[in-house]
């Protein structure tokens, strides 16, 4: 787990940076100088042809970092304009020192002027820091909207102004940056919810004190970037046969919904399950056999087959893709709930669970925000308001391992939260969740633990989508396009 990146709350970073700097004998103003220097270096690297720079500074330390950037740019011969969003008498401490240092090299400041078109190659956003919790004030919101509509490339200091550093939601309006330079400890809110729309590429800079900070603080979550961040996939013996790699059962595919369960079954095979069986509506069995003969498809109306597969044959079961919610679907759901094997519940199985809540620590739930809202009897806005809190509430009510899907998918096992930093907007299409269900149950079949299957499954699924999008683009990405990439990643 050491390869995962730790994520922290804003409060942890605010108090922890002082303690870490003290332990390393680094003055706080020196930290500000280092932060401004790192932002400047990122700007020079990303936009080497920048000749005119606009730095927009607020009143806190975030604004102080901006004044450091402005001074460095001025000294490098760049034409610099600084907009000061607060009155000078609002500046204090290190931010005031940075302001005076900028003036000392010939810099000047002015109030934001919305009456003229901006003339800059790049903008540095240093307006609001991590302390913002309520909605952005009207005057600042107007400024942020103006910058966003300018069409000029924006680099944000620490986090885009207007974004919650803890939850990733936009507090009314947020700066839409192409790059964000974050310091000392990565903030939880940079990687989930609406944050994906605003942060652009996130660059981490420890400022020489992050090692001490990490020692002194326990992460709130962990950021995943590769499949092996959590742990490598289980190795296979050279003498292995199909029975050594698990028997996965998938239940789903009501009349007219056979594609959902077939996608799950194919994903289960492609991730490496030894044997995959599908119980589905009788209308789907022939089509499933033709489309994928390796999947053992049979009718869920065959009571003998259902009892054998569930009670004697399978090592794990996934239920929900295309399941439906009628009386027959409910009977299948009830049978799975009383089974002793590890389970994955998705789609209609989650809707049935919401109507009949129960706890089970032998299962993985994979809700999207609307399903999560039904499970918690709240609105989707409540879920997206604080996804970290939502995933904990889901665990509190239902147990097991929770996978809260969406931009920056969260995985919570009751002790640790993991955040997926992969995936792309092309995944917002039918069947993607069905494929994820198949990947996860396929990993369970091969002996992965519940949390390991959930974490690795989410990462394989998202990285598969990214691999395909890199070659063919995000638009038009289909769930079945992920299958060959899933196989590649399971063997990488």
TrEMBL record:
Cofactor note: Binds 1 potassium ion per subunit.
Keywords for the protein's UniProt record, in alphabetical order: ATP-binding, Isomerase, Lyase, Metal-binding, Multifunctional enzyme, NAD, NADP, Nucleotide-binding, Potassium
InterPro entries given in the database record: Carbohydrate_kinase_pred_CS, CARKD, Nnr, Ribokinase-like, YjeF_N_dom, YjeF_N_dom_sf
Start and end residues of each YjeF C-terminal domain: 225-492
Binding-site list for K(+): 62, 125, 161
Family that this chain belongs to: Belongs to the NnrD/CARKD family.
Subunit field text: Homotetramer.
Function: Catalyzes the epimerization of the S- and R-forms of NAD(P)HX, a damaged form of NAD(P)H that is a result of enzymatic or heat-dependent hydration. This is a prerequisite for the S-specific NAD(P)H-hydrate dehydratase to allow the repair of both epimers of NAD(P)HX.
Name of the protein this chain belongs to: Bifunctional NAD(P)H-hydrate repair enzyme
Organism from which the protein derives: Vibrio zhanjiangensis
Gene: nnr
């Amino acid at each position: 787990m050491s390869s995962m990146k730790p994520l922290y709350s804003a409060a942890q970073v605010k108090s922890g940076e002082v303690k870490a700097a003290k332990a390393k004998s680094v003055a706080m103003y020196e930290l500000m100088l280092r932060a401004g220097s790192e932002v400047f270096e990122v700007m020079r690297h990303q936009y080497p042809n920048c000749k005119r720079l606009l730095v927009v500074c607020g009143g806190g330390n975030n604004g102080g970092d901006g004044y450091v950037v402005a001074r460095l740019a001025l000294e490098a011969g760049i034409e610099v304009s600084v907009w000061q969003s607060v009155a000078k008498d609002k500046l204090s401490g290190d931010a005031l020192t940075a302001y005076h240092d900028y003036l000392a090299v010939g810099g000047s400041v002015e109030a934001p002027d919305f009456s003229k078109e901006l003339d800059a190659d790049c903008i540095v956003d240093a307006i609001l820091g991590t302390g913002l919790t309520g909605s952005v004030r009207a005057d600042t919101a107007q400024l942020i909207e103006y910058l966003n509509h300018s069409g000029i490339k924006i680099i944000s200091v620490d986090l885009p102004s207007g974004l919650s550093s803890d939850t990733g939601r936009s507090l009314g309006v947020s700066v839409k940056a192409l790059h964000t330079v974050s310091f000392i400890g990565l903030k939880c809110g940079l990687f989930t919810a609406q944050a994906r729309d605003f942060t652009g590429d996130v660059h981490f800079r420890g400022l020489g004190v992050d090692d001490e900070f990490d020692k002194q603080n326990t992460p709130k979550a962990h950021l995943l970037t590769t499949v092996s961040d959590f742990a490598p996939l289980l190795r296979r013996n050279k003498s292995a046969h199909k029975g050594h790699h698990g028997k996965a059962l998938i239940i789903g595919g009501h009349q007219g919904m056979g594609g959902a369960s077939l996608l799950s079954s194919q994903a289960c095979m492609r991730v490496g399950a030894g044997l995959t069986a599908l119980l589905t509506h009788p209308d789907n069995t022939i089509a499933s056999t033709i489309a994928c003969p390796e999947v053992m498809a049979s009718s869920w109306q065959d009571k003998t087959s259902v009892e054998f597969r569930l009670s004697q044959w399978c090592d794990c079961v996934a239920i929900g893709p295309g399941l439906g919610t009628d009386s027959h679907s409910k009977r299948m759901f009830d049978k799975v709930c009383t089974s002793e094997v590890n389970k994955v519940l998705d789609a209609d199985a989650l809707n049935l669970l919401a109507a009949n809540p129960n706890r089970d620590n032998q299962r993985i739930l994979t809700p999207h925000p609307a399903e999560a809202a039904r499970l918690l009897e709240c609105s989707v806005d409540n879920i997206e308001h604080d996804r970290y809190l939502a995933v904990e509430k889901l665990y509190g009510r239902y147990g097991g391992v929770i996978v809260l899907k969406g931009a920056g998918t969260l995985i919570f096992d009751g002790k640790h939260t993991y955040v997926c930093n992969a995936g792309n907007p092309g995944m917002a299409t039918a069947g993607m969740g069905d494929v994820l269900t198949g990947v996860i149950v396929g990993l369970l079949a091969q002996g992965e633990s519940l949390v390991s299957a959930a974490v690795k499954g989410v990462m394989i699924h998202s990285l598969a989508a990214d691999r395909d999008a890199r070659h063919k683009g995000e638009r038009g990405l289909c769930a079945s396009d992920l299958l060959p990439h899933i196989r590649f990643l399971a063997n990488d």
